[in-house]
Task: structure prediction
Amino acid sequence: MTSTIQASPILSQPPPLIPRDTLLGNPERANPHIAPDGERLAWLAPDEHDVLQVWVQTIGRHDARAVTADKSRGIQSYGWGYDSKTILYAQDAAGDENFHLFAVDLDSDNVRDLTPWHGVRAEFVASNPKFPERILVALNLRDRKLMDVYRVDLRSGAVELDTKNPGDVAGWLADDDMIVRAAIVVTPDGGTEIRIRESAASAWRTLMKAGMEDNLAALDFTKDGKSLFLSTSIGTDTARLVRHDVASGKETDIAHSDGADLSDAMIQPTRHVVQAAAFDPGRTHWTVVDPSIQADFDAIAKIADGDFNVADRDLADETWLVSFSSDRAPKRYYSWDRASKKATFIFSVQPKLDDAPLAPMKPVDFTARDGMKINGYLTLPVGVPVKNLPLVLAVHGGPWARDSWGLDPYIQLLANRGYAVLQVNFRGSTGFGKKYLHAGDREWGLTMQSDLTDGVKWAVDAGIADRKRVAIFGGSYGGYAALAGAAFTPDLYRCAIDECGPSNLFTLLASIPPYWGVMRSIFDTRVGNPADPKDKELLTAASPLFSADKIKIPMLIGQGANDPRVKQAEAEQIVEAIAKHHGNAVYVLYTDEGHGFVRPENRLDFTARLEKFLADNLGGRYEPMNGDRMPGSTAKVRIVGASPL
Result:
């Protein structure tokens, strides 16, 4: 283990229940951005109907107002235009992930849909202060499978094709003159190719290639456009930050860690120089590259506890917005004046949690059955002895993602209800080097799953967990792992909770969104190729649907009807199979959701069911839900078996 497990002081009685709404409802305020001219601040906050909107306020005045009027899902992603008078935000329809890009003119309050085509997805590519009324956006308008780049005029709304996708490009990068000069391609063997061109009129050429075993990503051009900043693991196990000369191919190492991949690069947006690099072996650590910010970072680190990040800055680079993340406090934002080296507190995302009895999250590690070291996090309930606790194994999605240290509202809810919570960065997770990542290739349901099993065994052997009171819970890939745990290790878990997890890898891979087609080889090489007869046995064995007869524990299954990644059929077919084999399940379908539950009414509804389900099966505490669903939720419930227990 990386740290000694210690319980918090034993209390005479458990801490009070933290209200579900406080943990998982809308934030009071979140995600601030400063206008490029430094005059105004924007953030997300709920309106009187509890729908997240963009709010704007002149700095130093009390004139805050909502400038958007979304009616249902709330706005999750937004930013400033470089003219400092336009707010840009993305929104989809009921979770279909075909995001449209909207523009709010703050002078007139007019809202325009800049990409008003049904079934078309918009992805932001670039903006630049030299061209404040123009942005570059990728759209699958010409072909639903391909993302071309378009120039969008913020004043007139005109949309004009800029760069046509030749048929295999997955991503684009523009230089400081807003010319698309780099294209990122996923090769047929699952590797990466970076193509480059000298100008908009030049032909593309291959700059470099990496095999499927390596990570390679283009981050930014230098100011003069002659070099690229790359994240690459070519020649090393962990991804490092390098500068690559476009003409000569010469590379200069900028920052590297033997213990973790590059997790973030702070690049000055107008000078296009790397200022700092972040690595996260368990907590985030910054390596300062640009001496001009060393004094800023030294002083910022003393503002508050936790891991910090420069979230935004004005165009003059005089004011930074800095966030602090902690495992036992909501995210806090400060305004940082670089000249005076003075911080001004802006807000806490959820101030009701400031004094709540939150539980510490500790990095841990254990040895898997084949000797591989596996990383994770353990969160223990506050004020109770660390002995034979009910355990929830919380599995992250992706699977090419990872759990990280910080405040996770679901983890805190579970700990507050009396559960030890184990998060395992199983092999196949990102962040710990390419060997760690690719140890999960073609291992769905195999060693990726046995890492989870070994994590439970570790917690039981350490005396932390009661082996008879263990649940597995996750969303997306984590939902798959919950189904796999119930089907493949039916005696390990007392119950399982699946949120939008695939049950049949054949139907999952046959129904991926069309614009993921250029990345299809990643799935073929890392999961299995349904078109290859040699992979049929692999994919069949890894699909929980075909082992549904072994599921004998209670199941809670949640699904969004409009999920474009894991279709509703993935939930429907496993529920039918459980019913066929006389199992027990509660199936909850949300008719206006996609991949995950965005609307707070639905999120809180499913969480309330999760709490009660775990309490019934593992014996923890729960906050009752009044009625058969949360007000405003679109939940449709089906109960399979005589009892959900």
Notes: Residues 320 and 429 are 32 Å apart (CA to CA). The chain is about 15% helix and 35% strand.
